[in-house]
Amino acid sequence: MTQTLALLGGEPSVTAPGAHFAWPPIDDTTRAKVAAQLDTAVSIPGRSGIVAELEDALQDYFGVRHAVTLSSGTSALHAAYWAARVNAGDEVIVPAWTFHATASPLFHLRAVPVLCETGPDGNIDPTRVEELITPRTRAIMITHLWGRPAAMHALRAIAKTHKLALLEDGSHAHGASHGGQKVGTFGLAGAFSLNGPKPLSGGEGGFVLTNDDDTYYRVLTFAHYNKRAKSEIPQGHPLARYAVTGSGLKLRIHPLAAALANDQLGRLDGYLAGRAEIARYLSEQFADMPGLDVVAMPDGVIPSWYALTFTYRPDELGGLSVDRFHQALLAEGATEFDRPGSTRPMNQLPLYRQPGPLFPGHPHSHRRYVDGDFPIAEHTYQHTIKLPVWHREQDLPLAESYVSAARKVIDHHKELL
Ligand SMILES: Cc1ncc(COP(=O)(O)O)c(C=O)c1O
After folding, report:
1. Sign of the four-CA dihedral 4, 8, 9, 11
2. Euclidean distance between CA atoms 219 and 225, whole angstroms
3. Quick one: pLDDT band at residue 365, thresholds 50, 70, 90?
């Protein structure tokens, strides 16, 4: 390998062919289970078959009373807000930096997302929540960004003091825990995506967890009209008479997605343990490299390692821009080094600045967001470089080659200035 940077005409450091990271891992057992589902049922309107199997397995895994599968993480979040009785004009405090679907369903409920500054780790800053609470605040929604559990004990205490519903978006963080408790189980409800690259994947899909019976009936009413609502909401419950129509929406998971997710759930802890090993190796290797700070993991936290994140430090590399540094990594063949795209501070998104044209009359007018409203979220977003975390021992050489690629770019950064 020459030491000339690939961006300047040298040989790339990483020569392994093909995509370097594929998710979810699919083997012959997975294929057989999904294929078998084709012969069993491809539409399941009740809580039976693979849908019941998956929901039972989710309840066991998370240690909760109820798990309800849905068509996506977005629909799970929408259902969770509705189930938490977030009504028109209510405010919900959400992290300023997250994937927009954490908060966007609120517009459909004519409720107001109130963005809260995040900390240098990307998670909502608990010290900035209380200043946003008003008489209209109904709930706090937490994202565990990149699979790193947020400060749940502090956030739960705030929610309790102010009598707010605590909700979680665990879409990056299946199996992650804080103080021994799995994320998604701290508050009234946890919503999760099962979309493609998520730690637990069904290709598409989502689910809501709750220990509260009423919230469970409300999720069913919102998203699972007719058969499920009729059989699971008890006679005499105020929602039972709406069973035929529910709220009017049908947001079921596809049975093939449920079969895939069910197969993956049995492997999830193995994936997380493997990722933890490789994340430890990578964190050690990057610890003393100038220019890239590994974002520290607090004590008592077990992440899902949806990504290993770095904060880029141009001041340590002669002011080299993050764009050029990232281009140099990609040119070295380290194509999995990524910068967050659509998971961005939401004050930058037109939907959050001006929802009116999409939602005429939306009561958002008292929250007008502009660039610079969330300096920490915006700076961290701009300077984040991330890697997916491999989980198999045989992936270690690839991880090593990524370390070499980064070291080469850092050692030669002056040539890029
Ligand atoms: C944090 C977060 N929340 C919600 C979602 C939405 O999930 P889905 O794509 O399954 O609708 C995503 C998806 O990328 C996400 O990253």
Report:
1. positive
2. 10
3. low
- For residues 337 and 170, give the distance between their C-alpha atoms in angstroms, rounded to a whole number: 23
Nearest ligand 1 atom to alpha carbon 194? 10
**Domains defined along the chain, listed by start:** 28-265 (3.40.640.10), 268-416 (3.90.1150.10)
Average pLDDT over residues 358-383: 90
Q: Separation of 13 CA from ligand 1 center, angstroms?
A: 33
Tokens describing residue 112: 């107001």
How many A from CA of 286 to the centre of ligand 1? 29
Pocket lined around ligand 1, Cβ cut-off 6 Å: 72-74, 98-99, 101-102, 143, 169, 171-172, 193, 195, 206
From ligand 1's centre to the CA of 172, what distance in Å? 8
Q: Identify the bridge partners of residue 167 per DSSP, sorted by sequence position.
A: 141, 189
Instruction: List 113's β-bridge partners, or say none.
Output: 92
Q: Is 69 helix (H, G, I), strand (E, B) or coil?
A: strand
Q: Kindly report, residue by residue over 19-42, the tens digit of the pLDDT.
A: 999 999 999 999 999 999 999 999
Pocket test for ligand 1, best of 81, 193, 204, 344 (most atoms within 8 A of CB): 193
CA–centroid distance, 349 to ligand 1, in Å, is: 16
CA of 385 to the centre of ligand 1 (A): 20
How many angstroms does the Cα of residue 264 sit away from the middle of ligand 1? 18
Cβ atoms of 390 and 312 closer than 8 Å: no
| CA distance readout (Å), 232 to 55, 216, 235, 262, 338 | 14, 9, 9, 22, 44
Q: What are the distances in angstroms from CA 191 to CA 66, 162, 207, 233?
A: 12, 22, 6, 20
Q: What is the pLDDT of residues 245-287, one digit of tens each?
A: 999 999 999 999 999 999 999 999 999 999 999 999 999 999 9
Q: Do residues 159 and 133 touch, judged by C-beta distance below 8 A? A: no
69, 70, 71, 74: residue to mutate for ligand 1 pocket, most atoms within 8 A of CB: 74
